[in-house]
Amino acid sequence: MNATVGDVLLQHGRVVGQHDRSAEIIEVLGEDGTPPYRVRFEDGRESLVSPGPDSEVRHRDEPTPAP
Known about the structure:
The protein is mainly beta.
């Protein structure tokens, strides 16, 4: 998993009823774009995350898929 500042981290819900969450990557702490990442969620909270297999990075230049 590689990311740059400004990309979006999408964390998929892992249990029934849990919604996907997205956060903007505001700092990349690993080498060459690897985790951990400092992210800012939509509600303004910031967190340090090491994404698991239920996560994906959406790069700034990628089109957003239609629902």
